[in-house]
Structure formats: C-alpha cells, structure tokens
C-alpha cells in the first residue's frame, strides 16, 4: 500500500514537472518563473519519501526530459532535479534555511561548472566569449549612433568599456557563484511558498538583522588584501584567485554591513524605511557602499553589535 502511494505520488509530481518543463521551454516570460520552480516536484518527493526514492525520480525525469524536449532539456532537468534532491533531503532533516540555501547554491554551482566544461569540450562553445561578442556588437552599434549625433568621446568610452569587458573572463568563477546563489535563492522562495501551502514543515529564515558571518572571513579578507598589494601579473592563476576572492569577500562584508544596519535600526526602534532606503541609495551612491562595507568589517572584527547590545541593556 505504501509503495503504491509512493508510485502514485511520484507519477503525479512527474506530471507537474513535465508541465513546468514544457512551459519553461516554450513560453518565454512565464517560462522564467517555471524555470525557477522546476525544483519543486523533486523537493516535495524527496522530503516526503527520502533521498533514495528521490534518485529514482531524477532518473525517470531525465528520461522524460529527453523524450519530450530533446537532450537539450537535460540542461534544465539535471540541475533542477539534483538541487531538488539536496533541498528535499535537508528539509526532511529539518535543516536551517541557510543550510538549505548553501546546499542549493553549491549544487547549482557544480551543475553550472559541469555545463560550462561540457559546452567547451564537446561543442567548442565558450559562453563567456559569446556573451562578450554580443556586448561588443551592442556597444559598436551604440558608438555608431553616438558618433552620428556628434559625440566625439564615444570611441574613448568604447575603449574603456572594452578593457573592463576583458575582466569578465577572469571573473568567471565569481559570476558562476553569484548566478548559482541567485538561482538557489529564488528557487527556494518559490519552493517554500508551495510547501507551506501543502502544510509541510519548513524552518523559517532567521531575520536578516541576525546574520553574522564567521570571523574567519576577516582573516581571509586580510590575506587577499595583502596578496592584492603584491600586484600579481594579469592573467596568472594568482591574479584570478585574488580578483575573484576580493570581489566575493567585499560583497560578503557589504552584506554584513547591511545586516548590522538593520540590526541597529531594530534595536533602536527606528523605522524599517531607513535601512531599506540606505540599501537603495547604496546602488546609486558608490562611496556609501564603502562605508557600509567598513561597518561590516568592524562588526565582524570587533563584535560591534554585541557591544551595542550590552550598552543598550545597561541603560
């Protein structure tokens, strides 16, 4: 009886998966949402029946993907199913939302790396080069329009942009990590929304203001900063490592700074509109980001929020 229930549930979820896959492949705008929701059937099935049963669902879903959408559909099926398996297993174990998000990001990242390698080795396609060429074509068209309108500095601006574009190759690891995180974050939001409607237990996200990154990140940041002062030669492995780690660590310190601002405003009972406004302004005013990043560094290194809490309790 139990096996029959598992099979019936699996068949129903496979039907939902196929529908989502078809919408992803053939309906442009709605397909973006269904693309993010492809993980949901695998999460539900794995959370209810365990990871071993989830693997069987992955295999069947892969076969159906090839039959329905050609082998290209596997580029959607494999990431969604493997991430769904990981998320479902952690939800079954009642893991924290940060753990689920981290696992989903990691599995998406592995899938993206695999897809990138396969595209280069088997099909001789470098997505970064394709993207760069598309951007160059767009910039050339913009330059032609600007020149025809009498803007003489258009060529110089294009040269500056061309130099910046060259760094995209070096920043490929960072782009893959950020893409994986964004994909995992929005997929998790959709998944949790649906799981709650199904009355399935999912641990809530802790408030953003409570986010405190490990203190060890500060040491990594210091090491990377020292390495960057050594000015490694462009194109070397050390150059790529330092560039990518610098970008990621600076981003994390900035996130920590935002977390502290939300914490401080909550502690002082300041309206949420203030920190939200600061977040928006940081995208418009670059120096503000540096200040927020410094706040994040101080918060991690000197346990700033703990000191403020003690002072606040002492009053």
Automatic annotation (TrEMBL):
Extract the InterPro entries matched here: DUF2232
Classify the source by domain of life. Answer: Bacteria
Q: Which organism is it from?
A: Sutcliffiella horikoshii
Q: Write the protein's name.
A: DUF2232 domain-containing protein
Kindly list the residue ranges recorded as spanning the membrane.
Answer: 12-43, 55-78, 98-125, 170-195, 216-232, 238-264, 276-298
Q: Signal sequence: where?
A: none
Keywords in alphabetical order: Membrane, Transmembrane, Transmembrane helix
